[in-house]
Amino acid sequence: MGKVTGFLEIDRQVHKYQPASDRIRHYREFTLPMSDKEVEKQAARCMDCGIPFCHGPTGCPIHNQIPDWNDLVYSGDWENAIRNLHSTNNFPEFTGRICPAPCEEACTLNLEDIPVAIKTIEQALADKAHELGMIRPQPAAKKTGKRVAIIGSGPAGMAAAQQLGRTGHEVHVYERESRPGGLLRYGIPDFKMEKHHIDRRIEQMKGEGVTFFCNVNVGVDKKVSELLAEYDAVLYCGGSETPRPAGIPGGELEGVHDAMPYLVQQNKRLAQEDIGSVAWNAEPIVASGQHVVVVGGGDTASDCIGTAFRQGAVRVTQLDIRPQPPEKENKLAVWPYWATKMRTSSSQAEGAEREFQVATLEFIGEEGQLTGVKCCEVDDKRKPIAGTEFVIRADLAFIAIGFAGPISGGVTAELGEALKTHVDSRRSTNIEANDRDYRTSVDRLYVAGDVRRGQSLVVWAIREGRQAARSIDETLMGTTVLPR
After folding, report:
1. Is 363 helix (H, G, I), strand (E, B) or coil?
2. Neighbouring C-beta atoms of residue 281, cutoff 10 Å
3. Which helix (DSSP H) or strand (DSSP E) does residue 277 occupy?
4. What is the distance between the alpha carbons of residues 189 and 270, in angstroms, rounded to a whole number?
């Protein structure tokens, strides 16, 4: 695949970023795209490695045929590369922007710290597809007469809706918010992915016969039982939205917030939407001129950091209870799996102060207003070390330590004990269904995405939406042409 000696002759290059001093002045995407010729050179680095771990279960959950489309790009055959990519991934412009790229971790060249720039090439392919006008509706030749309802329009719901719409089913998507996209639209900051990418896909899907009903909170505005009575199948893709409880004293102080309402608010401001809704706090949260502390070390925490800087925060400190990871991993011990090593996100690189192996003991305040965060160092078992306490000044604090499962109201509240759940190893309560047929304990109700597997990556949600669509199609029609 690619050029036989390409990996020896061509250095790894990825797209560059605008300088931090420039990009924090706006909310737009800040990657600087590479030219077609530069992308083709990077695709040429894809070696004939024998076993391409990049598109196996360790590398790409949706099994993108990475060596194949790299070879096509290297050959200048962009159109067939685009078709190949879309055969496994409905939305490569999403994953090319926000996926952490486990495929690059699994690349054979990562043994030398110079993996193929797969994510950069994928984004270039997705953008080239729009440039060439290849993202057009693909409506079914004939209708099946079957009707499917999908609850939630995040990546799992969108992927399932597109697959089912293209097979000829009448697909109706119900979304709680005012626009489709789920947390792709309301949770991911614009500087990571601008929302016109979602809008273009929604228009494509409408052309394929998918109908969207927004401002409908299923389980509240419309009963699940009504959907089950009206449709041949119902797929629940509600995501994992319940914040994991932090249990930190002082959490009731003014200025202490869960992370997601903060991110949702900013996305709604940029879209000129009302920041209040049925699910999110309508009290404005703005970091301008504030000292900000972010509790947590994941992607959501990083998104809070980047948002705070763009709003004009004076100082942003991130607290991570985990020890500072090594700069480099032991390749022979962990490859081709995702490695624990020191990583710096684009938001952290904009000036965040990072504290590792630190526990948040208490939020401190005066007259009900947050003024500081009391912390201490912890040992290897995450137990506080006496005498290491310190206080960080804080006007705002965001808790970003993960999610514990679907929201307790709506679908789960209506169905109650009839809908079986289970607690996974991360203490998340998820709806029970296997990853073969995605059926729940309720007849004709299916489930996919984070609501089933717990908080995860967008690429996993797309995979589950596609596979659930296949299961539904096979059940309704007795056979299916949809891939797993």
Report:
1. strand
2. 16
3. none
4. 10
- Tokens 């489709």, residue located: 180
Average pLDDT of the residues in 131-146: 96
For residues 185 and 270, the answer to whether their CB atoms sit within 8 Å is: no
Token duo for residue 144: 């099946």
CA distance readout (Å), 316 to 311, 312, 361, 386: 11, 10, 18, 26
Q: How far apart are CA 249 and CA 252, in angstroms?
A: 8
Q: So what's the pLDDT on residue 394? A: 98
What confidence tens digit (pLDDT) does each residue in 339-395 have?
999 999 999 999 999 999 999 999 999 999 999 999 999 999 999 999 999 999 999
The tens digit of pLDDT for each residue in 270-326 reads 999 987 654 556 689 999 999 999 999 999 999 999 999 999 999 999 999 999 999
What gap in Å lies between CA 49 and CA 107, rounded to an integer?
Answer: 9
Nearest to 127 by CA among 104, 103, 94, 154: 94
DSSP state at residue 298: S
Distance (Å, rounded) from C-alpha 442 to C-alpha 214? 24
Q: What is the rounded CA–CA span in Å between residue 37 and residue 226? A: 54
> Is residue 185 a contact partner of residue 198, using CB atoms and an 8 Å limit?
yes
**Count of alpha carbons within 13 angstroms of residue 40, beta-carbon side:** 11
Q: At what angle do helices 66-74 and 118-131 cross, to 10 degrees?
A: 60
Mean pLDDT, rounded, for 234-258? 96
Phi then psi for residue 331, to 5 deg, are -55, -45
Both tokens of 317, joined, read: 């400190």
